[in-house]
User: Fold these one by one.
Assistant:
Number 1:
Amino acid sequence: SADVRDAMTSHSQVLILGGGLAGLSFAIAIACENPDSDIVLLEASPFRSGSPNPLDTRGSALNLHSVSLLESWGIWSGLRSAAGAIRDIHVSHRGHFGSTVMTAAELDVSALGYVVENHELGQQLLARATQLGITIRSPVRCRRLRTDAGTPAIETEEGEVITADLVLVAAGVAPDWFAQLGISVLERPTPNTALVFNASFPGQQSGRAFERFTENGPLAVLPLQTLSHADQRYNVVWSVSNSTATTFGDLDDEAFRNHFQDAFGWRLGRVQAVGRRSQWPLMRLSASEQFRAGFLLVGNAAHTLHPVAGQGLNLSLREAGLLAQAIADAQQRSAAIGCSASLKTYLDQVSDEQRLVVDSTDALAILFNRRGPLLDVPRDASLALLDLLPAIRQQVASVGTGR
């Protein structure tokens, strides 16, 4: 009957598929810039509550631009005490000459960036989204995207149809959904795997991050929030060859800890413990298009970056701020927010940003890979020069802050 059909159909101004860090950030940015917006967010899985084991958490590095965005969205004040400040970054190459330290003091800032644990950030985003009146539905699974009625719509597994002026796809790379939109995924596999884990060392947290070139690949060791004066926690991202990842995956914690100690060195003393290890193949994915028929791909759905520079979440937060402004501009002109004309400036901006960040992170990934003495020696010399030339070192550090 018509009544049943009406009961199974609803409309929102902005519909967001995916309640991860990116989806929640876009929802909040749009709500803050457009307070009267009707925003609905669907998440396929139940939201987790509570805190994992301190050695089993996962973290994200935030640059200073991201921090300023979170501040303007009313999130940073509740998150700051749970963030680990990066006050300086030590860059070195295992077994080779040349190293440098980039410091916050050189840029006249209190920190170069911060490391937040994903569960802390997720909880703060969820609380803020609820406070802003965003409709959050979880768990709700989307069965398919619909472009047949002239208005973007999705159909849930329960048969409910939700239409919207603009649908944001923020649930990562979803080939079935992309196929329904006529969007292809461009894949660039690499021979490397990212190992991610937390490690603890003795002593007090000083706020120093480490970027280390090792024979297996680049190793980032990032300071986490202080929980104890007796030891310090770090979030580690280690890019290794696929064969090495397989070998490491078969090791017990003690054997793996010894390999990590050998690669990282003794700058923080003996590794006391390592937490649960995660790994995934490093494959750069990008969508052939980001906008089609009222559907906009955002976050990792639009770009998956090499983790060496930690820019994936920062790029998503920047894009959230830009989209919120684009929607506000369209509404001021009484223009449809889901048409290509209203999103042209946004798409041009993010395309340029993505190209810059993707090229930069790809260059860093290539730079950090072991390539033999002909290319390693210039890299080592560059590190030594950075240490001798404060002005250049300051410029490199400034780029990393995202300001």
Note: DSSP finds twelve helices and 20 strands in the chain.
Number 2:
Amino acid sequence: KSFDLRWEKSTGKGKIYSYVTFTREVNPLYVVPFEVVLVEMDDEKPVRMVANMLDTKPEELYIGMPVELDFFDVSPKQPIPIFKKRAS
């Protein structure tokens, strides 16, 4: 196992492998509830990626849910990955 991180080309599509919903504030920048998902990428198996979910209610999440990667641009050099629902 390695902790060396690098960018790789990807379709950005995957399915939720696991998730957690935070209901207590852990950081004032995150409004509760918020979800963090572990996504298995469709075209890079067995690659999995952890990120927050965008515009999704906790009760809408399920294992196997199709999602796609997006980015929240904090700065041009430091985009933050985030997942959102996809049609399928």
Note: The radius of gyration is 13 Å.
